[in-house]
Amino acid sequence: MGIDWQRYDPGGFYDELMAAPGQPRPAARTLANYLASLGDAEIQERRLAAEHAILEMGISFTVYTEGGNIDRAWPFDIIPRIIPLEEWTRVERGLRQRLTALNRFIDDLYNERRIVRDGVVPEAVLAHSRNFREQCRGMRPVHGVWAHICGSDLVRDADGCFYVLEDNLRVPSGVSYMLENRQVTKRVFPELFEHHSIRPVDEYPAQLFDMLASLSPRPMDYPQVVVLTPGIYNSAYFEHAYLAQRMGAELVEGADLRVAEDDCVYMRTIEGPARVDVIYRRIDDLYLDPEVFQPDSLLGVPGLMRAWRAGNVALVNAPGAGVADDKVIYAFVPDMIRYYLDEAPILPNVPTYLCMDPRQREHVLAHLDQLVVKPANESGGYGMLVGPHATPEQRQAFADLIRRDPRNYIAQPTLQLSTAPTLCDGAVEPRHLDLRPFVLQGVRSDVTAGGLTRVALRRGSLVVNSSQGGGSKDTWIVDTDPGD
Predict the structure, then answer these.
(1) What is residue 482's predicted lDDT score, i.e. its pLDDT?
(2) Which residues pair with 439 in a beta bridge?
(3) What is the pLDDT of residues 242-251, one digit of tens each?
(4) 20 to 30 A Cα–Cα from 47, which one of 64, 139, 272, 358?
């Protein structure tokens, strides 16, 4: 029988593909009609083809458990998410604007601190920042860029407007899954790419390498770029190996590198030491250099900060960039855009309450049943409270946490996250989702055409993280008027 769009009802939520039951949005009309023409057996064949492709391609992620680490096949839904190009163009401009302002903020913070002096960002906000690194004061990275790679999480509310939910500037992950989602979709629905003008995403590894190479301290045609991984037990190891392979870069662990007496970084090779110019590091600041940070770290390289400060190696993202990854700092990004760029923010923030402010804290404590409360520096959906879905006991526990450490918590209204049609147990049902586009900034900036769409596969759930039962979709930026 296939998919009957007349019976598909997202309720009061904005749906990415269907404006109403039986009414696909203009950019999704061809896709919706095609899916409706397929029978149940053929749809299940395509779903199984996707699962086999994921296993064959080795696309996996790691879940940490008490008993060890479990590798799981990447959870993928075959129905793509579609965003019209004319809408995406505005989002792209907003992401470039945002990362430019964030980089100016980080550079200012470790140098002149004008934004603090002028009272735009209060000193009290920064005094307890867990990701501010004193060791980075006075540094001037190439092009003034600290956060070269950013993955900003976007959500769409019931009004159809995109909002920035948070910025990921420390070690943003997920781009490999965006790229692999496209490859799986091409295998499952090759015919659809003949009838849609879909913006490609496969140039990302080349753009990433070009950005990394542009940071090399030695002018040369092909600098030595390496990807520094914590190792095979890291949850994102698949991505580390994938990006290294796609860029033609070496995948290394800390033990493969050393800093010599000349304050340059060298890599062990079968032909002897080879100097390294750029390190795309996928480990956190605190494990980078045991001489400066955690003295017992076995993941980093002794002397690495010395080499970086001497200008002999580029580190991406730069140490200290995570100061702007803080969800409290996030609340001030619109002010940063106005301050540094003298522009109005193109993409709005989600309204945010800072629990460190006494008046805002009282509002949060009085409305915990209506709000989402998040710790300032956690990721992956951990440590948060979704007030409307929480028990009174859970809300009371969070009230105690907020009172104990108000600087560590923010609160936001519970958004009516947009939905998209998703295959669930043989039926198509609406599921909530978000979007993580990736922005590269070096001598120029590049934004992925779309990004990683993550889906909350459990009915009614707002948690999209794969480690907590979420899945993913291919994201299409579709030009509905390719003749122009």
Answers:
(1) 54
(2) 150, 447
(3) 999 999 999 9
(4) 64
CB atoms within 10 A of CB 67: 6
Distance separating alpha carbons of residues 371 and 330, to the nearest angstrom: 17
Cα 187 to Cα 56, 161, 181, 193: the distances in Å are 12, 32, 10, 10
Average pLDDT over residues 431-447: 95
Residue 65 pLDDT exceeds 60: no
CA atoms of 271 and 277, how far apart (whole Å): 18
The whole-number pLDDT of residue 67 equals: 47
CA dihedral 122, 127, 128, 132 (to 10 degrees): 100
Q: Which residues contact 370 (CB under 8 A, 6 or more apart)?
A: 387, 388, 413, 414
Closest CA relative to residue 205, chosen from 227, 181, 176? 176
> Using CA atoms, how far apart are residues 428 and 419, in angstroms rounded to an integer?
12
**Sequence letter at residue 278:** V
* Residue 347, H or E segment: none
pLDDT band with cut points at 50, 70 and 90 for residue 234: confident
The tokens describing 161, both together, are 């407007």
- Greater model confidence, 27 or 380: 27
Which residues have C-beta within 8 Å of that of residue 142, sequence separation ≥ 6? 214, 215, 314, 442
Phi, psi torsion values for 414, nearest 5 degrees: -75, 110
Q: DSSP states of 381-414 as a string?
A: TTT-EEGGGS-HHHHHHHHHHHHH-GGGEEEEE-
Partners of 456 in beta bridges: 470
* Residue 217 structure tokens: 């301290």
Backbone dihedral region of 440: left (phi > 0), alpha (psi from -120 to 50 degrees) or beta? beta
Distance CA 458, CA 379 (A): 20
Q: Is 101 exposed, middle or buried (0-12, 13-18, 19+ CB in 10 A)?
A: buried
Q: Can you tell me the distance from the alpha carbon of 203 to that of 184, in angstroms, rounded to the nearest whole number? A: 16
Beta bridge partners of 151: 168, 438
Please name the residue that has the structure tokens 């965006």: 178
Q: Report how far apart, in Å, the C-alpha atoms of 426 and of each of 178, 254, 399, 432 are.
A: 24, 46, 41, 18
State pLDDT tens for residues 362-384.
Answer: 999 999 999 999 998 776 566 88
- Residue 225 vs residues 144, 201, 280: alpha-carbon distances, Å: 20, 22, 7
- pLDDT tens-digit profile of 454-478? 998 888 877 776 666 678 999 999 9
Q: What is the pLDDT of residue 457?
A: 83
Question: What span, in angstroms and rounded, lies between the C-alpha atoms of 250 and 310?
Answer: 23
Query: What is the rounded average pLDDT of the residues 11-36?
Result: 94
